[in-house]
Amino acid sequence: MNKCVFLVLFMAAALVVIPATAQNRLPDAPLPKWEGLAETPQMGWSSWNKFQTNINETLIKDIADKMVSLGLVDAGYVYLNLDDGWHGERDEQGFVHEDPEKFPSGMKALADYLHAKGLKLGIYSDAGTNTCACYTGSLGHEYQDAFTYASWGVDYLKYDWCYTENVNPKGAYTLMRNALRRAGRPILFSMCEWGSSKPWEWAADVGHSWRTTGDIGVGFMPIPQRYDENGKKSWTPLGVMTIVDINEPLRRYAGPGHWNDPDMLEVGNGMTVAEDRAHFTLWCMMAAPLILGNDITDMTPETLATITNREVIAIDQDPLGIQGLRLKKKGDLQYWFKPLEGGDWAFCVLNVGDEPAVVSLNWASLEVNDEISGRSTDFSKVTYRARDLWNPSVKPFTTRAKTEITVGSHDVALYRLSPVK
Ligand code: GLA
Q1: What pLDDT shows up at residue 26?
Q2: 105, CA 20 to 30 Å: which among 14, 19, 76, 412?
Q3: Region 353-367: what's the mean pLDDT?
Q4: What is the secondary structure of 113-164 as a DSSP string?
Q5: Whose CA is nearest to atom 8 of ligand 1?
Q6: Positive or negative CA dihedral for 153, 64, 102, 106?
Q7: In what order do the strands lie in the sheet containing 79-81?
Q8: Which of these ranges, 25-39, 76-90, 134-148, has the smallest mean pLDDT?
């Protein structure tokens, strides 16, 4: 047999053999994310904004008790999320443990405590070698960690992005999604990659929410750049309005089960009551996860009233799950709309100026034609009744005529518009 004939015969044989072999070696089917866990944006409390890594079992149990007794659980805040700082060491086999001094009864006991109160336990890790506060990260331990969390009874994982040199974001988050699925316990997957790799473009079937920005700080308007003692730029958190400007244009990517996450709330952490109200309202208009970040064992009646306003929360939790839009900006005023179920709309006027503003609502100039939801207001044909959600005792007006309202500095007016039948 000459060389050529041999080669042809060899290749023909290979063609017969390869498909048979390949059939026995199909790649593992991808593991879908847990569905049905965030049909509306998740609601809860997280330890980070107020306590950073200063957390322990006593504090968390106090928070849990207050979440029940103050009606926060009834209002929908069911996740109690430990952020960075709960980790102890990994053992010789690489299994992670809680810090035995901070959590002497163990994570399983804490989960049982929360579950008995109608709460769910959230935990935090990182796709890199370390968490942002330098505790152990999950890189190389993804399946092990997911199984550990599931065995503890964890219901929520926030997965951060520090110390991820040479790690591919899509690969890393998909790996943890698979691990969570394989571990067998439904766990909401909150991706915290700060928007660096545009997760809204690829993560709808990976996570239930993805951070769209860097970290929030206590400030309504943009927070000035900070400098260290040598005059070098130092890390500076983002103010509410900076985050809003980044998150608003991403509305087309959000929907039931997969939300844009503009970071946790700073309500009750030092802004004015009006700023807190505006911050909370904008998060609701943007269908954002509502994760409280204040010390709820010690808050003012105004803070409690802001975070438990059921009609405002209902804007965030509307079953259509459409992120709202900023229709227009005019000077210091912004006009926002969010389509709601039943033909309703949430309508918000925001004043970012330093003085109160008297605003004349001319409905013809506020017509919305929303290509993303396919909804339009049609004020010329449909009359809406406008209910003031922050002042529900004020008599509703209709959109039949122009109306004058006053909006305070760094404050909002928020209405639910319902068609008059
Ligand atoms: C990052 C995250 C924050 C918080 C800290 C914890 O900065 O973006 O939300 O989790 O890490 O160290």
Answers
A1: 79
A2: 76
A3: 97
A4: HHHHTT-EEEEEEESSSB-TTSSB--TT-HHHHHHHHHHHT--EEEEE-SS-
A5: 215
A6: negative
A7: 259-261, 209-211, 188-191, 156-160, 120-126, 79-81, 43-46, 290-292
A8: 25-39
Cα distances (Å, whole numbers) of residue 248 to 242, 341, 396: 10, 20, 28
Alpha-carbon gap, residue 97 to 107, rounded angstroms: 9
For residues 307 and 305, what is the distance between their CA atoms, to the nearest angstrom? 6
Give catalytic status of residue 160 as yes or no.
Answer: yes
Mean pLDDT of 330-343: 98
State mean pLDDT over 92-96. 98
Q: Per the structure block, which two tokens stand in for 331?
A: 């000077």
Cα(400)–Cα(382) distance, integer angstroms: 9
Beta bridge partners of 411: 351
Q: 147 φ, ψ to 5°?
A: -65, -40
**Backbone dihedral angles phi then psi of residue 197, each to the nearest 5 degrees:** -110, 25
CA of residue 131 to ligand 1 center, whole Å: 8
Pocket of ligand 1 (CB under 6 A): 48, 83-84, 131-133, 160, 192, 215
Instruction: Return d(Cα 246, Cα 365) in angstroms, integer.
Output: 25
Q: Which helix (H) or strand (E) holds 182?
A: helix 169-183
Both tokens of 43, joined, read 């609601």
CA dihedral 208, 212, 217, 219 (to 10 degrees): -120
Mean pLDDT of 72-101: 98
**Residues across the chain:** 421
Give the burial string for 177-210 (b: 16+ CB within 10 Å, else e).
Answer: bbbbbebebebbbbbbbbbebebbeebbebbbbb
Question: pTM of this prediction?
Answer: 0.94
| pLDDT over threshold 60, residue 18 | no
Atom 1 in ligand 1: which residue has the minimum CA distance?
Answer: 132
- Cα–Cα distance measured from residue 410 to residue 278, given in angstroms and rounded to the nearest whole number: 7
For the chain, helix, strand, coil in percent to 5 are 30, 25, 45
* Distance between Cα 252 and ligand 1 center (Å): 26
